[in-house]
Design goal:
The complex is a heterodimer of chains A (about 60) and B (about 400). Chain A has about 60 residues and is α+β, with helices and mostly antiparallel strands. Chain A is built from 2 helices and 4 strands. Chain A has one domain: 2-Layer Sandwich (Alpha-Beta Plaits), CATH 3.30.70.20. Classes of the chains: A alpha+beta (about 60), B alpha/beta (about 400). At the A-B interface, helix 1, strand 2 and helix 2 of A face strand 12 and strand 16 of B.
Chain lengths: ~60, ~400
């Protein structure tokens, strides 16, 4: 399970990177990468100003 | 010699206001300094409303230039939830709204003039200590290059990972972080262009406010900061709140958007520790933001310069241990951090106010009161008298105030 980034909505501001408690998110240029460390906690979903992050519900 | 074969005295990661202020200070004192940034353009995209008050020009010893200090500000107007406004305006200029892209390029030019080297599109992907130095792995196009430095100053913003790579916890707690969203709009009207405009209320912007920072003729940064947890409670994100509010403003709703900005704002959780071996952190990465208004340009520049001064001291002593560098944290709290911590208390107070409380305050605080508060010219006794006078009719407010003053 991992958070997912919607690159069509994302403004690559990096807010999600700053609040990720396990440093699972990286911002490179205009792309967000989420690695396997993600604990699906939702911090990134909460902070995102444009709701570009969603939790994987599986 | 290639840039990555040199042993740098200091590698600054992040070419924003903080990193560039650090770079200028280091280069001025003849340190061998490299400034890396992952972006393709300095100053862009901005995550910022671009306001900077005169106080910071004085502190940083810079003069506002017309190229980037594009709009003079003479005051601010605060709006309660019922629309009642509290204007605070003076005859003289109190600060400027900047064109940050040009401002930061100006800082970059200054840093390079003094001998700093800047590299863009350089993304740090790993940082490790080795034999008392730091080795950075940096992605450049499709290559990974190595850079070596005695010291790293991490000014890489809210999304800072460099400090974390070197073992310093710079994570932002969700409760101490705001979700920010902004448009630069043009073709708008209905507000005094000489003032900043701040709109409060739980409907408008829960745990935050909406701002209009005028830039030029009919153009302004119109933005919002709300508590990061708000979206989970109301199912509305910062963009939704801002869009809804703009639609309710006759002077704004037909304007055109010429830029869209977003960003997280570290408005509280100060770092007890801003250094580690070979590492200092400053700016948003070090949570250097005013907890009340969320402004960060001035305090980030001051913090970057202070970090640079401590780096210079460490270079002189040839000692890059946390023990030596940690004096930076102490000095920052002594000179600025403790003041911001006090302001954090006031923020917590503001967060407890209901819309009725805001309306009451907007109705009862006069322009003179507000100016005195805004200038920080109130003495403790004045404050007590003012608040008692205004609040005595609202016992709930008195209880909240008593907790914090």
């Amino acid at each position: 399970m991992s958070a997912k980034n919607n690159s069509n909505k994302c403004l690559y501001c990096g807010a999600c990177v700053g609040v990720c408690p396990v440093s699972a998110i990286t911002l490179k240029d205009t792309r967000i990468f989420i690695n396997e460390k993600c604990i699906n906690c939702g911090a990134c979903v909460n902070i995102c100003p444009v709701s570009a992050m969603k939790l994987d519900k599986k | 010699m290639d840039a990555n074969e040199i042993l740098y005295d200091v590698i600054v990661v992040g070419a924003g206001p903080s990193g560039l202020a650090a770079g200028i200070e280091l280069a001025k004192k003849n340190a061998n300094v490299l400034i890396l940034d992952r972006k393709q353009e300095i100053g862009c995209p901005k995550r910022c409303a671009e306001g900077l008050s005169n106080r910071w020009f004085d502190i940083m010893e810079i003069k506002p230039k017309p190229e980037w200090a594009v709009h003079a500000i003479k005051g601010a107007v605060l709006y309660g939830p019922n629309g009642k406004d509290v204007p605070m305006k003076k005859k003289e200029t109190l600060g400027y709204v900047l064109e940050r892209k040009i401002f930061e390029k100006d800082l970059a030019i200054e840093a390079v003039k003094h001998g700093a080297k800047i590299l863009l599109k350089h993304q740090v992907v790993d940082a490790k200590r080795e034999n008392g130095l730091v080795k950075l792995k940096v992605e450049v196009n499709n290559e990974v290059k190595e850079f070596k430095g005695k010291l790293i100053i991490a000014c890489d913003g809210i999304d800072s990972l460099v400090a974390r790579m070197l073992g310093l916890n710079t994570k932002n707690n969700l409760n101490d972080t705001d979700s920010g969203y902004q448009y630069e709009m043009t073709g708008i009207s209905g507000y005094d262009e000489e003032c900043l405009h701040l709109y409060f209320g739980t409907e408008v912007a829960p745990r935050g406010y909406i701002w209009i920072f005028p830039k030029r003729d009919g153009t302004a940064n119109v933005g919002i900061g709300i508590g990061a947890y708000v979206s989970s409670q109301t199912n509305l994100n910062a963009k939704n709140y801002l869009d809804r509010w703009i639609q309710s403003q006759p002077g704004l709703k037909n304007g055109s958007i010429i830029e869209v900005n977003a960003g997280g704002i570290p408005v509280g959780g100060f770092l007890d520790k801003m250094t580690a071996d070979n590492l200092l952190v400053a700016g948003d990465a070090g949570h250097m933001v005013d907890p009340i208004h969320g402004g960060g340009i001035g305090v980030a520049m001051e913090g970057g310069r202070l970090a640079a001064r401590h780096a210079l001291r460490a270079l002189k002593e040839n000692d890059y241990t946390d023990k030596t560098l940690s004096k930076y944290t102490k000095e920052w709290f002594d000179t600025r951090g403790n003041e911001l911590k006090r302001r954090l208390k006031s923020r917590h107070l503001l967060e407890q106010l209901t819309d009725d409380d805001f309306n009451y305050l907007a109705d009862s605080i006069t322009m003179e009161d507000a100016l005195a508060i805004g200038n920080g010219t109130l003495s403790k006794t004045d404050k007590a008298i003012l608040f008692t006078k205004k609040l005595v009719k609202r016992p709930g407010l008195v209880a909240i105030m008593m907790k914090y003053f």
